[in-house]
Design brief:
mainly alpha; Serine Threonine Protein Phosphatase 5, Tetratricopeptide repeat; two-stranded antiparallel sheet; 69% helix
């Protein structure tokens, strides 16, 4: 496999939905420790509706698929995290609109736009204890993989590993945004809930195998 096409993305979004649903209690637990405890519910609802919408979305343009995912997420999960992820998907889609398939380089461009969209919308940066701390290392790893001409499978696997490590590092950070910021130094020692969502998203890409 040297690229991902529209049908691949539909299947991967189904995998993201499964990851989120299977981790609902974990996300709720993390969010209860730093927020209002509804992250598991809102993410499940959002990704379930995205998956349903993409089943009936016949356009194979990868960019349009991502934009559609973002629009549905914004409509069905109007929470802070839902809004940020929706923005990320829409920005990512615009970066690859017109492409029916993307290579590893295209995936890097897509993810770079994804986190840029979230950083602008959420006024966040690496080190603020957010989903960015999980995904920023993944984008760096993707760029490295592109330069080293790795396969898309190896690139996505490396990106996922970087995401998991990035999420783990949030335990040592002080939250600076949203409800978690109310805890100040007491947020140290707890993993950021948004970062955990980032891991589940990247996991679906890394584990995808075209049949």
């Amino acid at each position: 496999m040297i690229s991902l096409n529209g049908n691949d993305f539909r299947t991967i979004f189904s995998g993201i939905r499964d990851n989120i649903v299977n981790s609902r209690d974990m996300l709720t637990g993390l969010d209860s420790a730093l927020g209002d405890g509804d992250l598991g519910i809102t993410m499940c609802r959002g990704f379930e509706e995205v998956q349903k919408a993409l089943e009936d979305f016949e356009d194979n343009d990868v960019g349009k698929i991502l934009v559609k995912a973002g629009m549905v997420m914004a409509q069905t999960s109007p929470s802070t995290m839902g809004t940020l992820i929706a923005t990320g998907f829409m920005k990512a889609g615009k970066a690859v609109t017109g492409k029916n398939e993307i290579t590893l380089a295209g995936f890097h461009a897509m993810m770079e736009a994804f986190i840029e969209g979230i950083m602008v919308r959420g006024h966040a940066k690496p080190g603020d204890k957010t989903i960015i701390d999980a995904l920023y290392p993944a984008v760096e790893e993707l760029l490295k993989a592109v330069k080293e001409e790795k396969s898309i499978e190896d690139g996505l696997s490396a990106a996922y590993e970087a995401t998991a490590i990035g999420a783990e590092t949030t335990k040592g950070m002080i939250a600076k945004h949203g409800r978690p910021s109310y805890y100040g130094e007491k947020s140290i020692g707890k993993e950021d809930p948004g970062a955990a969502v980032g891991v589940l998203i990247m996991k679906a890409f890394a584990e995808y195998k075209r049949m």
